[in-house]
Amino acid sequence: MSAAEAASRRSRLRLVVVQALVFSLFATLFARLYYLQVVSGEEYTAQAANQSVRDIVVQPQRGLIVDDMGRPLVTNRTAWVVSVDRSMLAKMDAGQQDKLVERVAQVTGVRLAMVRKRLVTCGEEGSVTGACWNGSPYQPVPVATDVEQAVALRILEQPEDFPAVIAEQQTVRNYPRPYGVNLAHVLGYLSPITEDELESAEEDGDESVNGASSVGRAGVEKQYDAWLRGMPGYRSVAVDSMGRVLGDDGEVEATPGATLVTSIDARVQGLVEKELATTLQQARTEVDTVTGRRYEADSGAVVVLEADTGRVVAMASQPTYDPGVWVGGITKKQLAHLYSEAAGTPLLGRATQGQFAPGSTWKPFMTAGALTNGYSQDTRLACSSGFQVGNRVFKNYESGAYGYIGFDKALEVSCNTFFYRIGYDYWRRLGSDVDDVDARDPLVEEAKVFGFGDETGIDLPGEAPGRIADRTWKRAYYESMKDYYCGIADAPQDAETSDFVYRFAREFCIEGFAYRAGDAVNFAIGQGDTIVTPLQLARAYAALANGGTLWAPRVGKAIVDPSGRTIREIEPKKVGSVDLPKSVLSYIDTALQGVSSRGTMAWKLPGFPLEQVTIRSKTGSAEVYGKQSTSWVASYTDDYVVVMMVSQGGTGSGRNGDSIRRIYEALYGVEGSTVDPRKAYIPGTEPPAGLPTFTADGSILPPGRGEQEDR
């Protein structure tokens, strides 16, 4: 065979091999196509259809918040919202996009930088937490909420100037303010859900929130958020391969949130807020005779509870703020004001979060501790003008003296030196060894029994626990601060360190852990480092009023669904009891009646029908180093507890007495010296008509008191 023939044969062989390879490839391709189109065709067709449909969230209408009579405290209103459809925006070139975004910022009044931040999906490059869009990428992004109608109409009437821009009405929170109520610290506010919260909800399978949700951040809006938020709906839209919306493909309606019925009475709340604001304004016009300066009256609070249930009837705090400031998004300037110390930190609710020395309102609980730990109702101690402990003389208010008196008279005239002697006696007998952190202290024990030093359990977030400044606390405080103060003490005194601070630092460094006699006597009259919230004090006085039950105060009363059906009743919750003999409760009760009729509160109640509406009260003026006195009045009747506090406001009854009287007049329908229940702010409130109950030892237990055995 010639060379040419051999080459030709090899060429034909190669061609056959190539043809075989091509055929096998085509066979494989046809087999794969057959599998995809025939065997798995239906599955892939369904997946393709699913990928062409996207869900857009339809936000539910948030539930209402009403008072105990059904008066609306928080509702919803329609507001114009301007949104940008990013799928349409993406069709424009970069220059057109920039011009449109600038035009939207200009017409809505929102800063251009903020509009740009809101158009970025959270998690993408350049997203800013708190400003980025957390919702569906196929949903128009809100860039301005609660805009003026004229702005919305301009956008709607000039679509050629605002392509991809949508102006529509949505619901936002509204505050009707019946009787002028503010109630900001109780109601709370909303803000957009965060990325972390959304991820957590998705992990828990919670379908009630989504990337476009707003959630409760404070007050009952946060506490009952799960009930108020409702369930979102979904509108399905068809999109093309580029993600552009082609049309609607179905809708699942949203379910509105439930209504929260509260125990707040708007009429009483309105009065309480007015009294507190007026009292602070009046205080700032008066001069502190001790310092020669006008009273600062920098903050205050009022709490009104139902004595037998712990339900909150009214709760006011100053300074306060407009809860509507959060609607549509709060500005940095507004937020800075809410946290500003110069403005009084308006975001801080003093009733549940403010912590103050209780002053003489503490003395009834010290009386309870003493009468169940060695002292008796027959005890007589000197109410001298002063009581010396070491090299310091602890004095009575204005150095008054009343001779030898009992606990009842000591409460009436608010004698400090009487209670100094009690505190000193227990310290001397049980706790003079400063190294004994576990030394027994009956007064500290009794304070804890009444719930001080711990949260009350109210159904509001962020409650402060207060503080009982006992031996354990003082040792722990020393351990946490000794390095700081010893650092000052060990260094030479400089120009920025005052003589007082330098001397205090040296003393603290050496023996700051020691619980001295001075600490014990201060504790006995509610001074020193012990602090309470107004709500804690009100809850403890309610225990005196109801016979010894400690309730977790409640704002929520019931949950009602959109059809009007009650789906949950929020019952009062008992969290403890004060195991005092009924004779002791009766004794304290009678003594506090004396405060109102003869003692430090009597001058504010002339002509008040105390024989029909029996007010038990205790006044207090707590001295705070470097500040003016904190004024207190804590009081109760058979039905209600009313506590009022003004920081840096002066004396207790002098500052708060008139307001306390007017609140009780409103609660019972008192005009002058007569009682007309028909004029009571809360229907059905009437003074008790029954006779008192006599205990086994012959003392009087007022009507409504719990029956407890003597221990």
From TrEMBL:
Residue numbers spanned by region Disordered: 686-711
Keywords from the UniProt entry: Carboxypeptidase, Cell inner membrane, Cell membrane, Cell shape, Cell wall biogenesis/degradation, Hydrolase, Membrane, Peptidoglycan synthesis, Protease, Transmembrane, Transmembrane helix
Enzyme Commission number(s) from the entry: 3.4.16.4
Residue intervals of the Penicillin-binding protein transpeptidase domain: 300-654
Record has Hydrolase as a keyword: yes
Boundaries of every Penicillin-binding protein dimerisation domain copy: 58-246
Main localization category: membrane
Membrane topology, record value: Single-pass membrane protein
The family this protein is said to belong to: Belongs to the transpeptidase family.
Name of the molecule in the record: Penicillin-binding protein 2
Origin species: Nocardioides oceani
